Amino acid sequence: AVGASAMEEAAAHNGSAAGAGAGAGAGSPAAARPPATPEGMALAYGSLVLMALLPIFFGALRSVSCAKSKNSSEMPETITSRDAARFPIVASCTLLGLYLFFKIFSQEYINLLLSMYFFVLGILALSHTISPMMNRFFPANFPNKQYQLLFTQGSGESKEEIVNYEFDTKDLVCLALSSVVGVWYLLRKHWIANNLFGLAFSLNGVELLHLNNVSTGCILLGGLFIYDVFWVFGTNVMVTVAKSFEAPIKLVFPQDLLEKGLEADNFAMLGLGDIVIPGHWDFAAFSYSLKKNTRTYFYTSFVAYIFGLGLTIFIMHIFKHAQPALLYLVPACIGFPLLVALAKGEVTEMFSYESSAEILPHTPRLTHFPTVSGSPASLADSMQQKLSCPRRRRQQSPSAM
Fold first, then answer.
1. Which end of the chain is more exposed for a tag (fewer CB within 10 A), N or C?
2. Residue 77: beta bridge partners?
3. d(CA 46, CA 53)
4. Which segments of 171-266 are extended strands (E)?
């Protein structure tokens, strides 16, 4: 919820988006920093745009490929129209609650608690992200053993699974590597470790959730459009929380990297919400493009995102003021594909298209919460078993437990 706005901490010198609450330079005030050079700003903003595009592109590809694979246990969940309508309300309550917490309680203790929370989440998200890539580096004779962490409640026929987590030795290796990054982030709060976690969160957000149709996407983006504009321009809540919140909820890149190297501390930043939310829209465009045997709408949405993010940076540079990125991203991401659909005479067909009925036929919906908890893989796997083999599952449950 907090990361739904980009460049919240824009400083008013040379368009600098100084990171006065993130990274190594959190303690120095933005006004004391020298103005960023044009080269440094170009490198920082260009890197942010590139980092934002990676999880959107690969997250959409992984979401479709995982859902279409018969052997895949990781099924994306669908955001329904009801979920989309209430999401801005939930996000606003969360944002306001964090604002009040930072005003009432000590910022140091709150950030310590949040750091531990995101430390655990970041390790799991990064492990899930690098797992497909790491599998290519393991030799064929690697001793890969299977494990299962099972926690149940009750006894006999009334026994119920609470946690059913299945993993193997390769997953443990990925978890160990991710833990190294987690400890690095926890001890140093280094911007590279922050970005590794941020990219993992973004890619998982796009991959494991998707919009079932274009109408739902319009509801979600329209609601968050109002949310972002109100909390950035109407109040100081968004900027205050962003400056106080020390967690990997944003991507950062130093504008003084050329001068200070890896110890740079003058950051430009982009909220993760400005990546994940348009990423869901791009997935809807991607799935519709697959139905039409083309990727026209996906590439159109992709170009629209680049245009909208570039316009955000340009406006911020001109007016030297924090900008709600969704103010520019939402009209671009919705408008560009609709113009293409209007030119091709496919507006009605686009809005009536249901992605889950064709591309993701077995996708669980968020309105039906599973009774088994655990990893996303184990949740989806248990739901799929209940749908496809209910009798076999009842026969195996006593022995498995």
1. C
2. 209
3. 11
4. 209-211, 250-254
Determine the 3-state secondary structure of 309 from DSSP. helix
Other CB atoms closer than 10 Å to residue 374's CB: what's the count?
19
**Position 159 in a domain:** yes
Whether the Cβ atoms of residue 272 and residue 201 lie closer than 8 Å to each other: yes
What is the Cα–Cα distance from 370 to 161, expressed in whole angstroms? Answer: 11
Q: By C-alpha distance, which of 8, 59, 4 is closest to 302?
A: 59
Residues 271 and 2: beta-carbon distance below 8 Å:
yes
Range of the domain at 191: 38-358
Q: CB atoms < 10 A from the CB of 85, how many? A: 14
Whether 71 is in a domain gets the answer yes
Q: Cα–Cα distance between 300 and 282 in angstroms, integer? A: 9
Nearest to 135 by CA among 105, 160, 159, 171: 171
SS3 209: strand
Q: Within a domain: residue 389?
A: no
Instruction: Report the b/e string of 300-336 with b at 16+ CB within 10 A.
Output: bbbebbebbbebbbebbbeeeebbbbbbbbbebbbeb
Q: If we measure between CA atoms, which residue out of 387, 48, 60, 23 comes closest to residue 217?
A: 60
Looking at residue 180, what is its pLDDT? 95
- Full DSSP string of 357-396: GTT-TTPPBTTS--S-BS-HHHHHHHHHHHHH-HHHHHHH
**Does residue 85 sit within a domain?**
yes
> How many structural domains compose the chain?
1
**Catalytic site residues?**
228, 274
Cβ neighbours around 151 below 10 Å, total: 12
